[in-house]
Structure formats: structure tokens, C-alpha cells
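Input/output pair, single chain:
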Amino acid sequence: MISWDEAAARLRGGFVPAPDKPEETVEATLRALWFAAAGQARPVSRAQPPLPPLDADQGATFKALIDRRLAGEPLAYLVGLQEFMGLEFIAAAGALIPRRETELLGAAVLSALAEVQQQTPQPRLLDLCTGCGNLAVMLAHYAPGATVVATDLEQAALDIAALNVRHHHFGERIRLLQGNLFGALAPLGAEARFELISCNPPYLSSRHAAHMPPEVGAAEPVAAFDGGPFGLSIVLRLLKEAPAHLAPGGWLCFEIGAGQQALVESRIKQQSGYTDMHRAYDSQGVVRAYRLCWQP
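Output:
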């Protein structure tokens, strides 16, 4: 059986840290794989000592998991779990793995939700491009009186979102719909309006999305990253189409890519009705998410 020191040396020999997953250090990755091999899988952020003992078969599994990680399989897919905003989510191929950077959007959504709940104890909430359902589940968790609709273009993503809805016992409060952005809402009728709309859209340019590192581009769904020629096709549609589905005083929250602030804010200013703009900044001082109030 491979020892901890041998495993650490092996992983370090081929380990390339992912800048968008800062929690996945060598040591944290090894702990997460160790727990998975022991049959006690947990997200990397919760894989803390003490470690359980491994028998010979589990030791072989541990070594195989290290090899798969070195071959480029994402850690969250190997472990099957990822943490987001303090909640645990099932992670599997077919849906984007929740990123730490998206917690900026999560915090913006919760701030908007607090505003909504002051006025509406049973709000209607919509999460577009839901992926694995992390924002939709977060909304249902922090707003017990809310009903939530979550949509995605890809059925594979909705299948994983359904697993997370059941994992958190929200089957009666979260409705999953397939379709292209607001087109997914057709079953609800043309008058469907919401007090809050959240969206983590694809925002990389098509050229960038096609040349991502193998761990991302070959493992996670490219549709979750590709935002068109300049990366803003979905974001600009979102800004244009959201007012038809927002209740007066409702909030729109969304994520953008680094360097997209100027164009996004230009479009916001061109479209009357958006007020009370709040920006969320990353650790480098770059705007990465917005929350906007809609006042027609």
C-alpha cells in the first residue's frame, strides 16, 4: 500500500494547481481522495484530519484515485461532492463544478434575497443556467417560504441538478425546466414574473472556451463556459430580456468575467429601468458580479 509521504510525492510530481480552485492544495486533495477511498467521501473543503484507516483494497483505490487526478480528472468529480456557500452538492460530469469565485455571486444573491424577503415572505425566485443547481438550492435553503424555478439548456446538467434537489429535500419547492434562457419558462405562461432572478451564465469567449486546460475543457461541459464570440452573448440577452420577467422592485443578479465591466455597465445604462446597482469585487479588485433592482 502506498504511504502518505509516497502519495504526496507522487501527486506533487505532476500537480498543477487550478487558479479557480484555491482550496485544492496538494494536502487537501490527498485528504479528499483518502476519504473517498475509505468510503467516506466529502468535499475537499471538509476533508479534515483525522483520517480513517485504509485496508489493502482501499489503499489500492487511493492510489488509483491519485493516478486519475494526475491524468486530469477534476477532484470534485472523483470525490463526487463539492461545497458552495456552506452547502454540500453532488458533483458529476455533465454540470459545471461550483467555484469559490461564484460565491461572490452567491453573496450578492443573498443580499438581494434579504431585500426581497422584507417585502414578500413567499417570493418567487428564478435561477437561470442553473448547472448542478447550486444557486437554486441555496435560494431554497435560505428562503424557506420561497418557490424556486431553475432552468438550463442542457438536460445533463438538469439531471445533476435534480440529484441535488433531492439531496437537499427540496423536491416540492424547486421546479426544473429545460430551455434556452427565458424560453424555458413557456410552461409557466407569458405572465410569469419573479422577485429575484439569478444567473451564472457562460461568459468566456468561444475562442477562450475552446482552449481551456484539459482538466476543464475535456472534463466539464464547454456549454457552461462558452459565452459567444466576445463572451457576453448570454449576459447581454439576460439584461435585455429579464425585465419582462421581473416583478416591479425585483432584483437581477449575475456573474461576469474579468475585464467585462465596462461593456456590461454601458449596456446597463442604455436600458432604462435598472437602478440601485451593486458591484461585487474579487480579491484583485475586479468586478465579477452584479445585483440590479428593476423599477419600471
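The beta strands are 81-84, 87-90, 124-128, 147-152, 174-178, 194-199, 246-255, 274-281, 287-294. The chain has a mean pLDDT of 91.
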